[in-house]
From TrEMBL:
The lineage of its organism: Bacteria, Pseudomonadati, Pseudomonadota, Betaproteobacteria, Burkholderiales. The chain crosses the membrane at residues 58-82, 102-131, 152-171, 183-202. One of its GO terms (cellular component) is plasma membrane. Keywords: Cell inner membrane, Cell membrane, Membrane, Transmembrane, Transmembrane helix. It comes from Corticimicrobacter populi. This is Paraquat-inducible membrane protein A. Pfam families: PqiA. It is found in: Cell inner membrane. Its main location: membrane. InterPro entries: PqiA-like (IPR007498), PqiA-PqiB_transport (IPR051800).
Length: 214
């Protein structure tokens, strides 16, 4: 059975053209109405043809996440005390310390979760928002895949917070050493939550709306 080509896919009718709306919670397709408070008959979630103020909300959460990312990297995330030596460590300092001590796996996990993933999410979300606002037809399928990728990797960003918590729990068992989280880890947790909210606020259906006006 052959799959339809790009041209035939583009000619398929949209849900709004058919007068129906899909529930984002359970997937049930219902008849579209003009009432903004219409609820799904199956799960009770509010039905929206498009998420209200999607672009504005996504930008707000994204900018807030970028702002929080600065203190998350500048302020210490971890305090360590070993044999009388006291040290407040930032994220990058912790990466360097773990790498220098031979803990390459932990260093890579922290660098990926705290630097590579957040920066990638900032860039991808900014790209999606700018191109959608400009009603660009550029690489629409690829942009939709990027959005799904951001959703997929977003939950793994908490690995950095988890690593600090696990290390703190392990070190507590040693009588001559101590470790405590610092204020920077709260800002990093805020970055993770805000970028997740930004991705959740963005409506990927807006990417394809430009085709309806052709």
């Amino acid at each position: 059975m052959s799959m339809p080509g790009n041209g035939s896919l583009e000619r398929l009718p949209r849900a709004r053209q058919l007068g129906v709306t899909g529930c984002e919670a359970c997937g049930l397709v219902s008849e579209a109405t003009s009432d903004p408070h219409t609820r799904c008959p199956r799960c009770g979630a509010t039905l929206h043809s498009r998420r209200p103020d999607s672009i504005m909300r996504a930008w707000a959460f994204l900018i807030a996440g970028i702002i929080c990312y600065i203190p998350a990297n500048v302020l210490p995330v971890m305090y360590t005390s070993l044999l009388g030596n006291h040290l407040d460590s930032t994220i990058m300092h912790g990466v360097v310390e773990f790498w220098s001590s031979g803990s390459y796996g932990i260093a890579l996990v922290i660098f990926t979760a705290s630097v590579a993933v957040p920066c990638t999410k900032f860039l991808v979300m900014a790209l999606l928002l700018v191109t959608t606002q400009r009603r660009s037809r550029w690489a629409m399928r690829e942009r939709a895949r990027l959005y799904r990728l951001v959703e997929l990797v977003g939950y793994w960003s908490m690995l950095d917070v988890l690593v600090v918590a696990v290390i703190a729990a392990l070190v507590k068992f040693q009588a001559l050493s101590d470790i405590e989280p610092r204020i920077g880890i709260l800002f990093f947790g805020a970055v993770v939550i805000l970028t997740m909210l930004s991705a959740m606020s963005f409506d990927p259906r807006l990417i394809w709306d430009v085709e309806e006006n052709d």
